[in-house]
UniProtKB/TrEMBL annotation:
Gene3D superfamilies on file: Diaminopimelate Epimerase, Chain A, domain 1
Domain of life: Bacteria
Coiled coil regions, renumbered to chain: none
Name by which UniProt lists this protein: PhzF family phenazine biosynthesis protein
Pfam short name (any one): PhzC-PhzF
């Protein structure tokens, strides 16, 4: 039996009742993958993150949903950064290790924004959805779909689609049969990221299929990163956007997306520290 220290962070917000909740475990010694998966399932948050080798120059992160380990996810990395900074009592670290590779990080000390760089070069592939079929899957008019959904990957592959405006994003009613058929990456991983842009402001939702039901994530950094990847592949760079997500859930998240002139993709967010606890666990 070992005592595991964990912390609660609301990511992508400075408020106590908004953002995306995150348990952050700091490991004194390694845990098995089975144990980490069981703990993440018990925590039942969108993700739980485990920090290994805290005092190394590049600490290692293990990111788990209640169902599986992820190679990369923005909300747990940005939340973990604040805990690393708090415990190391320093300017933190320049990089972190994930399954997707090394993630470079920066901290804006003035605005308290934690920034992470997409770990891999953007990759894009076509989906099996055209605009008429997307219209059927989302139950919205074809005129509200800007282009057919595409699979994007800057660390964690996801299906993304641009809609005409925020009202269209909020009005979707997903056909679950079509959703499972066309938005499944592999068994247990069915998702879509919907976005609509108004100048430098973007409104988004991230929906997924889990345990036979439709779910929604309140703040998704990896999808924000993939949106940046799409812009890079379309030749758009040197911009900063503000992303709003989770509004219909009553937990607004604010994410920052920055694509530099040399096509680096950075995702940023602020955090609200909520507390800490102890878990007794026999691995």
């Amino acid at each position: 039996m070992q005592s595991l220290n964990y912390y609660w962070i609301n990511v992508f917000t400075t408020e106590q009742d908004k953002g995306n909740p995150l348990p952050v475990f700091v490991l004194k010694k390694t845990l098995s993958q089975t144990a980490m998966q069981k703990i993440a399932t018990m925590m039942n948050q969108s993700e739980t993150v485990f920090i290994e080798n805290l005092n190394n120059d590049s600490p290692k992160l293990h990111i788990y949903t209640p169902m599986q380990e992820l190679p990369f996810a923005g909300h747990p990395i940005i939340g973990a950064l604040q805990i690393i900074k708090k415990l190391k009592n320093s300017s933190c670290t320049d990089s972190l290790e994930t399954l997707a590779g090394t993630v470079n990080v920066q901290i804006d000390q003035h605005q308290q924004i934690y920034w992470i760089k997409a770990p891999i070069t953007p990759k894009q592939r076509a989906s099996t959805l055209d605009i008429p079929l997307t219209s059927q899957m989302l139950n919205i008019p074809e005129s509200q779909i800007v282009s057919a959904p595409q699979w994007l990957n800057t660390g964690s592959e996801q299906l993304i689609v641009e809609l005409s405006d925020a009202n269209a994003v909020d009005s979707i009613q997903i056909n679950l049969d079509l959703f499972q058929k066309h938005a499944t990456l592999y068994a247990g991983r069915t998702m879509i990221y919907l976005w609509a842009r108004d100048h430098d402001n973007v409104y988004t939702r991230y929906l997924y299929f889990k345990n036979g039901a439709l779910g929604e994530d309140s703040g998704t950094g990896s999808a924000c990163s993939n949106l940046g990847g799409l812009q890079v592949l379309e030749g758009n760079n040197n911009f900063e956007w503000t992303i709003r997500q989770g509004c219909l859930l009553g937990r607004e998240n604010v994410l920052f997306l920055k694509v530099t002139a040399n096509q680096e993709i950075w995702i940023g967010g602020q955090n609200r520290f909520m507390g800490k606890g102890e878990l007794l666990w026999a691995d």
